[in-house]
Design brief:
By secondary structure, the protein is α/β, with parallel strands linked by helices. It has two domains: 5-252, Spore Coat Polysaccharide Biosynthesis Protein SpsA, Chain A (Alpha-Beta Complex); 260-326. It has helices at residues 52-63, 82-88, 105-117, 137-144, 209-212, 227-237, 263-281, 284-307, 311-326; strands at residues 5-10, 16-21, 41-48, 69-77, 94-99, 123-127, 131-133, 152-158, 164-166, 169-172, 177-180, 195-197, 204-208, 242-252. 47% of the residues are buried.
């Protein structure tokens, strides 16, 4: 159970943020899993960006979880968190961090990770604000991590119509990309085997405390997109494999948190961040091949988009490619 406090502090990237949350606990230094017979302590980290209704559904689904002791750290980007305070003021399991500016997905998650590690939680569960979990999901993911919390675990993620969104993921550094397995396929049981994967979407991902105590965090300069693939590669290099657990289920209302007028901007981040991922994790030959591959893909897409009069999308793709090759990262609005 989490005591609440109200304070002001400087958040990631020097952003002033206001928080309502738990007092740091001396038990937070304990990195051992829950003792036999005790429910695993799972803290969900959820980032909200101007979608309070969806976020509330995500939080409510966490509280319906069975077999685990749960809490939620809600990070509000570009807001004051007032809507959440009005709803959860008497709910001690909800901790709220409010950032007046949009500091990006990775930076906001890092704020939440730091906060929940100050408590005696066994796992951090990353969950998109536009996703909901089945009641048994957290129990299955915690068990999948192993008796000594030696792996990160990811669920099967479905779309509302029952099609697959992600069954773990594949990283192809030679093509500078990471992609979800099975995306948009009909779920016929083709991904019903528990197995290690290259990466898993941060839409829903449980990470054992001991993996994060070594300092692994999201690489904040991505700002948006590909930071989850980067995080998983860091975890694997540190000896924490990514295990796909198909019995655990999450429903993702894909792109519900992305307004239509931002889709062109997101093309920029997706293109640029492919190059960033390649430069951070690729080897010599992979970097050369990956750069050539992405450049060819972008040129073909720009030509096609220009012919159809989609000049904004063309500029976003070219800008992302150029900035990625130049090593320019962070938030770069396209206004």
């Amino acid at each position: 159970m989490m005591a609440r406090r109200i304070s002001a502090h400087t958040g990631s990237a020097g952003t002033c943020s206001e928080s309502v949350g738990p007092r740091p606990s001396a038990a937070g230094a304990n990195s051992q899993p829950a003792a036999a017979g005790l429910e695993p302590r799972v803290a969900a980290v959820i980032v909200n960006f101007r979608q309070p209704e969806l976020t509330r559904e995500a939080i409510d689904s966490i509280f319906r979880s069975e077999g685990v002791s749960v809490s939620v750290c809600l990070i509000e980007n570009a807001g004051d968190g007032q809507w959440a305070r009005e709803i959860y003021d008497n709910e001690p399991r909800v901790d709220i961090i409010a950032n007046p500016e949009n500091i990006g997905f990775g930076a906001a998650c890092n704020q939440g990770i730091e906060r929940v590690l100050a408590e005696d939680n066994d796992f951090v569960f990353l969950l998109n604000n536009d996703a909901t979990v089945d009641p048994q999901t957290l129990t299955l993911l915690a068990a999948s991590s192993g008796p000594h919390s030696q792996s990160t675990s990811a669920p099967k993620i479905l779309l509302p119509d029952g099609r697959l969104y992600a069954a773990g993921g594949v990283v192809e550094l030679g093509r500078a990309r990471a992609r979800n397995r099975g995306i948009y396929e009909t779920d016929r049981g083709q991904f019903d085997r528990r197995e290690p994967v290259d990466f898993a979407s941060a839409c829903a991902l449980i990470i054992p405390r001991r993996a994060l105590e070594g300092g692994i965090r999201f690489h904040e300069p991505y700002f948006l997109y590909y930071e989850d693939a980067d995080l998983c590669l860091q975890l694997r290099k540190a000896g924490f494999p990514i295990i796909y657990e198909p019995r655990a289920r999450v429903v993702h209302h894909e792109s519900a948190s992305t307004p239509q007028n931002r889709r062109t901007e997101l093309l920029y981040y997706e293109t640029r961040n492919r190059i960033i991922l390649l430069f951070r994790h690729g080897k010599g030959g992979e970097k050369a091949v990956g750069c050539v591959y992405v450049t060819c893909v972008v040129v073909v897409k720009v030509f096609s988009l220009t012919l159809r009069g989609r000049f904004g999308a063309s500029c976003a793709l070219l800008g992302g490619l150029i900035d990625g090759l130049r090593g320019r990262a962070g938030r770069r609005p396209l206004e």
